[in-house]
């Protein structure tokens, strides 16, 4: 038994459950699921960098928040159609990603993390000071509008399917990227950068490109969030959000394609159901994070995969090479 | 008298504020640099330890009636002990792994500490009285200096210089530098490296807490007082490069002054200028002003 052989059945069951969500409003709150979907896309996009290229960005909230603010402002103040607003949010975030990425990859490892954090602070200050963002109040009352001029998004059900569709498309892009020659080169960079350079790959260009892609998808996740809640707020660009997305990725398992999705669901659920505990939420999430870093660095999906492998050892050729040792031996 | 249309009093006032902030940056980035040098871990919790120092001093004064000078000594020691316990129990398990995990573990400690203090004390600030002996001002002729701010500058610089002296000029410091360069070899010479590592983390954390106690009467004591600071410290460290102890001190002070000047001419931008300087330095000298190019 192998985790990979479970992927398709799980995917189909998951899709059916997700499609059915709006029909059971008494069971689940569809806005909560939509928010979770945004974080699923955000975490999977983020993991293109952390898990698949070995780059820790500590400033991804900058892209998420930029998407949210750009879409919000375009739709609210200029009456841009919602779908174009979301697209523009993704594009601006991608451009920002190209700039920040080009600067950040001048260093590596821990320095890179600090640089992205500092750059995202610049973005935070921009949105704090810019005249259109409403500073502490955030950009409020963003109209949801219509999708492609036909579907009225003020209905939660309609919006739900649109969000599901866009997030699905985003995840497909992530999956396609990882399983492409481009994704292979990214993994080569992660495993052994000097060798990738000596093989003639323009490593810097690859890094900037994956940074741009990851930022663009994160921006779209933010744009969707702004449309769903009709709000773009400072918390979206705050470094806490950058921390959250790292936690999601780590918790789910950064060596898998969709592990971060599982992590996003767990963190989002924790946040949702622990809300009555107020400030304790931060403490609880901190403890979960700590346990995760100390004891299971493979994440939920990674550990599950290892468990299944060890119980039913498959033919050695089928096992992904060194999947369990990878995270620990990166350097 | 005006300079560039700014009255010299205002200019000097902001410059002084810049030097005060710069002193905090210097002490904090010094601690961060020492910890990074030996543990190869970026201590994200540095700001949280700064906050912990201020809170410990506040609680000591509030509940035990300790005077300022006692808290200035006891609070950093207490926080250093806590830090050493944290290193001994948890951080130790991550050595040899990707340094990213150290960053993440200390980040999760920030969540726990900040969240915990917010539960216990709320988000609003607690006032902390300036010590009796340091109230009042000194007239320097060209400007009026509040006594406490002057004391902060002197105390911070003194601590920085003592730390520099211990590391660069004593036998203990020599062992420490040896452990930074070649841990196994140092161990082979019979030096207890793990204990040295724990001690180093304690010193770095204690420095952060010391800065916290110094800052307590100037800023209000509140749970998030460290988290905005730590990001500036990261920028300071990137600008200076983690290469040298002196580099951390000089860069910290220098950026405080730059920030002060910016506040005079374009105040909204003062909190951002550090990051802008960082971008410029990265473009011109990726290893930082005092850093060595990594292998």
Structure description:
The complex is a heterodimer of chains A (about 325) and B (about 300). Chain A has about 325 residues and is mainly α. Chain A is built from 13 helices and two strands. Chain A has helices at about 5-20, 30-55, 60-75, 80-105, 110-130, 155-180, 180-190, 195-200, 205-230, 240-250, 260-275, 280-295, 300-310, and strands at about 145, 150. Chain A has a two-stranded antiparallel ribbon with strand order 1-2. Residues about 315-330 of chain A have low confidence and may be disordered. Chain B has about 300 residues and is mainly alpha-helical. Chain B has helices at about 10-40, 45-65, 70-90, 100-120, 145-170, 170-180, 185-190, 195-215, 225-240, 245-265, 275-285, and strands spanning about 1-5, 5, 135-140, 145. The longest helix of chain B is centred in the first third of the chain and has 32 residues, at about 10-40. Chain B is globular.
- Biggest β-sheet of chain B: count, sense, barrel? 2 strands, antiparallel
Helix content of chain A: 55-70%
The ordered string of helix (H) and strand (E) elements of chain A is HHHHHEEHHHHHHHH
Tell me the span between the first and last alpha carbons of chain A: 31 Å
Oligomer: heterodimer
- Number of H/I helices of chain A: 13
Assess the beta-strand content of chain A as a share of residues.
under 5%
How much strand content do the residues of chain B show?
A: under 5%
Helix fraction of chain B by DSSP (H/I, runs of at least 4) = 55-70%
Unreliable runs of chain B: none
Overall number of strands of chain B: 4
Average pLDDT taken over every residue of chain A: 86
Structural class of chain B: mainly alpha
Strand count, sense and barrel status of the largest sheet of chain A are: 2 strands, antiparallel
H and E string of chain B: EEHHHHEEHHHHHHH
Radius of gyration of chain A: 20 Å
Helix/strand/pairing category of chain A:
mainly alpha
Spatial order of the strands forming the largest sheet of chain A = 1-2
Strand order of the largest sheet of chain B: 1-2
How many E strands of chain A?
A: 2
